[in-house]
Amino acid sequence: MSDIADESLAYEGVKRIEWADRAMPVLRQIRERFAVERPLAGMRVAACMHVTTETAGLIRTLQAGGASVALAASNPLSTQDDTAAALVREYGAEVFARAGTDREGYYRHIHQALETGPDLVLDDGCDLVNTLHTDRTDLIGTVRAGCEQTTTGVIRLHQMALEGALRFPMVAVNDTDTKHMFDNRYGTGQSTLDGIVRATNTLLAGKTVVIAGFGYCGRGLAERARGLGARVVVTEIDPVKALDAALQGFAVQPMARAAEHGDVFITATGNRDVVAAEHLAVMKDGAILANSGHFDVEIDVRALQDLAVEVHRVRPQADEYVLADGRRLVLLAEGRLVNLAAAEGHPAAVMDMSFADQALTCAWLATAHATLDAAVHQVPKEIDTEVARLKLASMTIEIDTLTAEQEEYLHSWRLGS
Q: Where is the S-adenosyl-L-homocysteine hydrolase NAD binding domain positioned along the sequence (predicted)?
């Protein structure tokens, strides 16, 4: 039995889902293929993901492949109640998600999704898998394998595997080129700045934007902030990534120094306390704080609360913290994912590739799970290549192919220079 806010919102949800579907041609092609091949026939899937119109496209594709799907929200602030209603009423999925639910409701929904006894699990941040391995070990026996689609989640899975705690194979869908190169770089880059602008109506041109982390998400953020006229400062702990940022022309500084002159701060690291009390203590009046990492721990919100003498909601998804010395710091989306809480997340055209990776990986796992050990695995290269090929075709872009002679040359060691 689903748990959603208002089933009467289904009509509006269907309209939005159909609009997103127009920009997801790769997933549409896979859905049509799945409807014929039925690679997931009889399988139960439990997913903990953002309940958005794009995710609805993935759920419908899995259903076309023969799966029954139970969906819980991976972030209460990103849940679209009309999408949840449409998935339940019009598309026959089980959904456990309400916009703005509290922490207790969040985990209750994860438990409800798991109680369907899934064969496969899809996670966005590893909370569902973590719950299986801590509170619901009684259900692990039915799970054959799963997928994780975030950097943060993959980090947690690798640690579980390192400690020997992981009980079934998980595939790092996040690590495919068509996911992290495009979703993280182009999707996060655009949607995060979209969320910041919607929440604040600030002009980024001329501002100093400090970006914590120069992985694929950080790169996309830095590129797009510079394109909007901002002065970009990057903070990093990895010498190679810091060097990459510097050679691309970005200023690279420790957060302690950047904190003194930044106007907008964006975290995208997958770690906690990236913006800590000592940084908050030296920020200028009016500084804007936004998080684009998965969990709301990258900005130390508790430290910010301790420093504040007053807190005001100045705009939707924007809270102004007034400090004892009169400085005002503006926290967006309560420190949660700003692109999904204050905007609409990645454009559907980006999620088209990410969810195509998910769908094809699920179909592969339906049979391949028996050959995999309880570890973190990579998506087969041919799946990544197929998604890119379908995307190029949908864009009417053609590329070259190797001749027989070129193929022979690449696979021979006998031919010299």
A: 184-345
